[in-house]
Hints:
Layout (H helix, E strand, L loop, with lengths): L15 H7 L2 H4 L3 H17 L5 H19 L12 H13 L12 H37 L4 E6 L2 E7 H26 L1 E2 L15 H8 L3 E2 L3 H6 L2 H27 L7 E3 L17 H24 L14 H21 L3 E3 L1 H8 L6 H10 L4 H18 L8 H5 L9 H4 L2 H6 L9 H15 L3
Parallel strand pairs: 3-4
Antiparallel strand pairs: 1-2, 5-6
Amino acid sequence: xxxxxxxxxxxxxxxxxxxxxxxxxxxxxxxxxxxxxxxxxxxxxxxxxxxxxxxxxxxxxxxxxxxxxxxxxxxxxxxxxxxxxxxxxxxxxxxxxxxxxxxxxxxxxxxxxxxxxxxxxxxxxxxxxxxxxxxxxxxxxxxxxxxxxxxxxxxxxxxxxxxxxxxxxxxxxxxxxxxxxxxxxxxxxxxxxxxxxxxxxxxxxxxxxxxxxxxxxxxxxxxxxxxxxxxxxxxxxxxxxxxxxxxxxxxxxxxxxxxxxxxxxxxxxxxxxxxxxxxxxxxxxxxxxxxxxxxxxxxxxxxxxxxxxxxxxxxxxxxxxxxxxxxxxxxxxxxxxxxxxxxxxxxxxxxxxxxxxxxxxxxxxxxxxxxxxxxxxxxxxxxxxxxxxxxxxxxxxxxxxxxxxxxxxxxxxxxxxxxxxxxxxxxxxxxxxxxxxxxxxxxxxxxxxxxxxxxxxxxx
Length: 460
């Protein structure tokens, strides 16, 4: 006969390889605190509804406290034969409380249990991640404030396009993180749903007070449909989706830090504490942290594909396939957290080479658009002004010069509207200062954006 908790109907022992294949304890053991919290709430509710006595509930709750203490201290061994964290907790409780422990599972199933455990876990971790992303925003804003006067080339198509403030560029990532935080904050509403009491899929005949359990566990609301309650993993898919977008934002920053730290750019130097060397080339200083964040983005996106693929064709209600939800979820949580934390630590230790950035702004005709704008301000239609500027750039290329290195006489060949004030108009400082439209890169705009962010983050 099977010795499993569910083994009454079975006449043969489970094959050892099936035990290993079927078990999830190596993955879901991290849910033990959530599982015990849910069990305590369930016991309190059953006592309140006189399904068990108050004395029985008190003894079992005390036993669960001892089980948690032992699990906290790694004193309880995990084994494939007990399959999952729910059975480990129940068996451990039996050692603490004897036969009374068999009443714990009254009115519930591992199906609603695991749905609850994941929601408890994910609600807490989502809040942790929001705080970590907020800390990363603080690092971005602090760095932007420190370099408010630094000008760098802005790029489109990886070609120098127009000058921007370095702080403005950093604040773009602040905005990305703000959207990420908003997504995670919004998703909590769909995580914060209490499924316990729906049992396997149909509900239960016991008079469970699910609202009471919700209050004990501090959930926002109770799930409405028992079938959906145990089969829903939308909140897992949504979380990993949001995490994938966030990781893509970090990966974009990684790509820029890698480029900027190369000898071809030399815009920044990343601290030795966040770089590594080469085993064969003594001169190398590799931006491995940024490269790893960029690389780990792929695994998080892969986790999203994995959970979507797992769920895409499952009939109602619970299926064993859903055991595969935890590995991608846990890996995503762990990966996003360490990437956010390491970037929060790394940013303050990056040295910015302002002179190199400014010098790069003076090459590549970044003032060509402003050259055209100058002509527009003198009455020329923009398309005509664009053509004149393009011809001037072509001529300058042939002379191996920048636009502001051409003489006034040379410039006036292209338009009689050009006067000596053209040089001030296309200077780096004026190009930045004129970008006064809301959200633009002018000094005043960026200073205000940084100050606003500081207030939002409680830095001032």
